Structure formats: C-alpha cells, structure tokens
Automatic annotation (TrEMBL):
GO terms for molecular function: 3-phosphoshikimate 1-carboxyvinyltransferase activity. Belongs to the EPSP synthase family. NCBIfam families: aroA. This is 3-phosphoshikimate 1-carboxyvinyltransferase. It holds the Pfam family EPSP_synthase. The gene is aroA. The lineage of its organism: Bacteria, Pseudomonadati, Bacteroidota, Flavobacteriia, Flavobacteriales. Catalyzes the transfer of the enolpyruvyl moiety of phosphoenolpyruvate (PEP) to the 5-hydroxyl of shikimate-3-phosphate (S3P) to produce enolpyruvyl shikimate-3-phosphate and inorganic phosphate.
Length: 405
C-alpha cells in the first residue's frame, strides 16, 4: 500500500502510549521459555515479537521468522540447546542474506548440531537440539551483538554457566548490557567487563514479573517530529529515566535540535519551542544503529549538514540502510556520500515535490521519512512495513495531526 502523507505547520501536541520494546520483549520470551516462572508485562505487539512467540510453541518442523533478526539469532541458540527439538529455521528473502555464520560456528564448536540448508553462513538452518555443556566460547564481536546476546540468553541453562570471550571491537554494546540487565532482573547472575562475559548457571529461578519499557527506537520518530516542528509538546509512555535501551541516548542527541526531555512518572515529555539554527550535526552511532535513519531525515528536513559515523552494521540490517538512505534522500534533492560505515550530506534548501519514498521492506525507512511530511507532502511505498516493530505507527501519527491517505 502506498500512502500520501501531509502535515500542516501548526504546533504539534499530543500524548501516545508506545508499545513495549521489541528487543526487551524478545529477550524475555527466550528466557521465559527456559524459566516459566517469569511473567512479562507490556509485551511488544510488533510482528517480530509475535513471530518469536509463535516459534517458541514449536519443537519440530519449519519455523519461519520472516524479517525478525533477533528472532533468527536468539532462536538459533535456543533450539540448538533444547533436547528433542528438530527444527528448520528460515525467514524472508532478506533474512536469507543476513549473515549468521559467526553464531553457528560458535554453537558448533560448543557441540551444537546445526547445518546450512542452502548457502553456508546464511539461513535457513537445520537444527537438532541437544544438551550442551560447554563452559567457554570465543566470538567475533564486531558484526552483530545479537550473536552475543543469543549465547548469553541460553548460557544460564548450562551446568557450569557460560564464559563468552569477545574478539575485536564490540559493536552495539548497549544491547549486550540490556541482555545482562534483563537476565539479572530475572534472577540470573552475570558479568560483562574487558571483553569477557560470564553467565552463572541458574537451574531454577524465583517467580518474577518483569515490565517491558516502551520502545526507545520507536520514540525516535517523535523526537524527529518535535525537532522539525517550531512548537511541540509530545508525551510518550511508558518510559523510565534509567533505561536498559541504548537508544535512550536520543534525549541527549535531540537537545542539539532544541528538543528537551522531561521524565514524569512513567512518561517522557518532549518539548520544543521556537526555531533553532544548528550549523551541523556529527554523531557516532556505533552504539545505537537503529536511530541513524531517523537522525538523517531530521537533518534533511531542517537543512542541517549531517555527518554520521559508526554505521558499519547498517548494510546487514533489513536492507542495506546506507544505500537506501542515499537513494531516498537524493530524491528530495542534493547528494549523499556514503562509505562503508558513514554517511554525509548537506541538504538542499528546496525540496523536490511529488517524491515517492521506497521502503525496501524496512520499517525504519517508512517511519524515519514520515516526519518530513511537515516540510513537504510526499508518498511512502509499502507503508505496512512498519508492523515489524510498530504496528500502530500510522494511527499514532494521525493523532498528532498528520494526514495519511
Ligand atoms: O539485540 C537487539 O535487540 C538488537 C541489536 C542491534 O543489532 P546489531 O547488534 O546486529 O547491531 C539492533 O540493530 C537491533 O535492532 C536489535
Ligand atoms: C535491525 C533491526 O532489527 P533486527 O536486526 O532484529 O531485524 C531493527 O529493528 O532496526
């Protein structure tokens, strides 16, 4: 479905409840499958969480996790370590292009029984679950933190726990801390320092109810809206001042655009008043890759020269996000330079009209571009992609005065 999106320049005011973090939800579901004494509140309603929930009900046959990276990586480790599981784990066409070799190699070295169905290094995988009693494993840490979280999430079920030795420069580090914090909250002991993670064994846990915080990556689109507006006051719930999600760094980054964040009980209030001139934005997003698209489009909308670094993981996400950003930003005018881990552009002062933004099966392409409608009406192709992480996105935008047709 292609939609047309417009928004007049009137002040933006409203309150929204954002669904639970898909990252936190998917970690908790993997833990709950091993420790049924865990109860989960404010679970994400995203497709990625739903496919994982459904997959966890299966022990044999084919499991298709569509576009969900966390589900693919976490389930590979989970199924490989569950006795009696005999699963073929597959996903969308794009998922079959997203590498998984580092994780599979590690699990195989630990004694896991995993075979590639087609191409070595990529899904689908044929997994025969078995009891694994490895004590230590080495893992290259500069490609995806999801491989590391996947091993952490099963490590407490091993008789001696699991030591993970990280090699190379660790990427997306806050997601590793998130995994550890959630495990600790559930009662599992663990440590992460100096490229060494240790997960202590936990045969059984006390009962606990864990509330998922709402998704900070989803909040990014409202930071962008607040930044682009001259006047805005947007209240988002349920958020905490001390978040487990690395993307909560948004509050700091968007101060440059004049957006302030106030924490009140379980909400954040984003405020902006008056125009602010920013001469340029330069950020290293190695620790928060999922907000790169949002920030790039905020800069585009505001005419702010943009230089983003630390983007080496963007090429293996839902699409090659560097190339996709270049293609779509250039449709509005100007030239975007991309390297293997960076993106740079100086926006034009006038926007091309009648642009149709392609979304490449990537929820974040659709959501990141949407706030630009405050400057110029345009079209977004395949708008339903947002359901990967935020199914209510378009309804929520309409509550803030956007016209979506
Ligand atoms: O562990 C997680 O929940 C995630 C880790 C990040 O991936 P990488 O570690 O592959 O960068 C992030 O981009 C993804 O959306 C969610
Ligand atoms: C990269 C993402 O997800 P995943 O890797 O879990 O598919 C994302 O949500 O931006």
């Amino acid at each position: 479905m292609t939609i047309k999106i417009t928004r007049d320049p009137a002040p933006v005011k409203g309150a929204l409840k954002i669904t639970g973090s898909k990252s936190e939800s998917n970690r908790l579901l993997i833990l709950q499958a091993q420790y049924p004494e865990i109860e989960i509140g404010n679970l994400s309603n995203s497709d990625d969480t739903q496919v994982l929930q459904k997959a966890l009900r299966q022990q044999s046959g084919q499991v298709d996790i569509h576009h969900a990276g966390t589900a693919m990586r976490f389930l590979t480790a989970y199924f490989a370590t569950q006795e009696n599981c005999d699963i073929t784990l597959t996903g969308s066409k794009r998922m079959k292009e997203r590498p998984i070799r580092l994780l599979v190699d590690a699990l195989q070295r630990m004694g896991g029984d995993i075979e590639y169905v087609n191409e070595i290094g990529y899904p689908p995988l044929k997994i025969k679950g078995k009891k694994i009693a490895a004590q230590t494993v080495k893992l290259q840490a500069n490609v995806s933190s999801q491989y590391i979280s996947a091993l952490m999430l099963v490590g407490a079920s091993f008789p001696e726990g699991l030591e993970i030795l990280l090699e190379g420069q660790v990427t997306s580090t806050p997601y590793i801390h998130m995994t550890l914090e959630i495990m600790k909250h559930a009662g599992i002991k663990g440590e992460f320092a100096d490229n060494r993670i240790f997960i202590y064994p936990a045969p059984k846990l006390e009962s606990s109810k864990i509330e998922v915080e709402s998704d900070w990556s989803s909040a990014s689109y409202f930071y962008s809206i607040a930044a682009i507006a001259d006047e805005a006051e947007i209240t988002l719930s349920n958020y905490r001042k001390t978040s487990r999600q690395g993307d909560s760094c948004l509050a700091e980054i968007y101060r440059h655009f004049g957006v302030t964040t106030t924490f009140e009980e379980n909400s954040i209030i984003l405020k902006k008043s008056g125009k602010r001139h920013l001469r340029g934005l330069k950020e290293d997003l190695r620790n928060s890759p999922d907000i790169a698209q949002t920030i790039a489009v905020t800069c585009l909308a505001l005419g702010v020269p943009c230089e983003l670094h630390g983007l080496h993981t963007l090429k293996i996400k839902e699409t090659d996000r560097l190339q996709a950003l270049k293609n779509e930003i250039e449709k509005f005018g100007g030239k975007v330079k991309i390297g293997s881990d960076c993106l740079q552009f100086v926006p034009q002062t006038e926007f091309q009209e009648n642009v149709s933004v392609a979304t490449y099966n990537d929820h974040r392409m659709a959501m990141a571009f949407a706030p630009l409608a405050m400057k110029v009406p345009f079209q977004i192709e395949d708008a339903g992609v947002v359901s990967k992480s935020y199914p209510d996105f378009w309804e929520d935008l309409q509550k803030l005065g956007f016209q979506v047709s």
